[in-house]
Amino acid sequence: MSIVRLRAAVALIGRFPALAGVDLDVDGGEVVLVQGPNGAGKSTLLRLCAGLLRLESGEGEILGHDLATDRPLIRRSVGLLGHDTALYDDLTVRENLDFWARASRVDVAGVGAAMDRLGVPSRLHDVGVGLLSAGQRRRVALAAVVVRRPQLWLLDEPHAGLDPSGRDLVDRLVVDAAAAGATVLLSSHEVGRTLELATRRVTVAGGTITGDVSDVR
Amino acid sequence: MFADALLVAAKDLRIEWRSRVTASQVVPFAFLVLVLFGFALDANRPVLDAATGGLFWIAVLFVAIVAVQRSTAIETTDGARRALLLAGVEPAAVFLGKTAAVALQLLVVEAVMVGGIVVLYDASIESIGLLAATCVVATVGIAAAGTLLGALVAGVRARETVLPILLLPVLAPVLIGATRAFDDALGTVAVDGWAWLGLLAGFGAINIVLGALAYGVLLEET
User: Which of 54-73 (A) contact B at CB < 8 A?
Assistant: First the structure.
């Protein structure tokens, strides 16, 4: 089943066409590395697939839902790790994750397991997020994605700001997600590392796809 | 939807409780405004007596700007606004939750300010029921209009300065209606305060309906 299907997809950031006619098909279980220079449109592509951006022209389906009409359904089914962590500084780690679990209508019982999986030590569970380092915040943000158990993972530079053990954790998450049948699109500048995870490499430049290589392992 | 609204309101109130912004900054700010108005008009006691209701509500509007800016910043600082969309929370629920949280904070500040006008301005309360009802109904309208406009300017670069420019004219009917109702409650002017309360209720209802309908569009990215 095609998880992502884009045809001549155009998306604007303000008035600027950040994606200028993208064609892309991604099947279930694929791990796709989205590569490209700064400003190429990688983050925009991930946000479009998350249903956060309006499809200006063209066609698109994510998880079988129409990008033009079913964006609320798409949003609920994906997990996006963007550049922001979407965490509230004045709430503790546990309170943040509980809030996002309840808001996403998923079982709060999964929060503890997600924190363990991301290596968030128990001494930090009841600490305000505002006191965490950038790397620790990133781990908590990833835990919020894990709690949702998404069918489509959209990870925008997931290794950024993490120490070596954190990067290893991200790699393990991606491998486990794919093994469980989920689909992963990730952008990263750590090409060597992510090529070992990816089943396919898509290159983006100037808002269009300029390269698409399968079996990159 | 109401469960989600409650979730959002509880989250905002918990953040306020932890940050102590209302207690440590907003309440002293409101009190300071009342003191300064008192300094400015104390030499002319009859004018101060007649203007007490208006001064109270002007101070509330200043406080409302601070509270709404704070409420908006909670969602915009680290991309939580986008995450709320991804979580699938209904925008109307976000609007209602944030409105409720702002309204509760304002009511706490107003309770302190009522004490302030009694102590500083020597105001006497002739109808506590009308005074309390005015505070509740006017505050709901202020919080609803503020939350809506806060979301409208969230993506604007100079939102801290744009918000007061947009919000204060919109809240002019509240200032008029609540001042008249307070005049009656404080016995300073012979008006029918309960009739003015009707205007405030209408304003509040319009802004709640408008906000619940429009908030989703304002949350969306372009």
Answer: 54, 72
Calculate how close chain B gets to A56, using CA atoms only, in Å.
Answer: 10
Chain A positions touching B222 (Cβ under 8 A) are: 12-14, 54
A21 by DSSP, 3-state: which?
Answer: strand
- What average pLDDT does range A111-121 have in this prediction? 94
Q: Taking the CB of residue B115, how many other CB atoms lie within 10 A of it?
A: 11
Instruction: Single out the residue of A177, A171, A165 nearest to residue A197, CA to CA.
Output: A171
Structural domain of A119: 2-214
Alpha-carbon torsion (A58, A62, A66, A67), positive or negative:
negative
Sheet of strand A200-205: strand arrangement: A78-81, A152-156, A183-187, A31-35, A200-205, A208-214
Q: Is A128 on the interface with B (CB under 8 A)?
A: yes
Q: Which two tokens stand for residue B41?
A: 């008009």
Question: Domain count of chain B?
Answer: 1
- Give the pLDDT confidence of A89-105 residue by residue, as tens digits: 999 999 999 999 999 99
| Residue range(s) defining the domain that contains residue B198 | 2-219
> Which CATH number goes with the domain that contains A67?
3.40.50.300
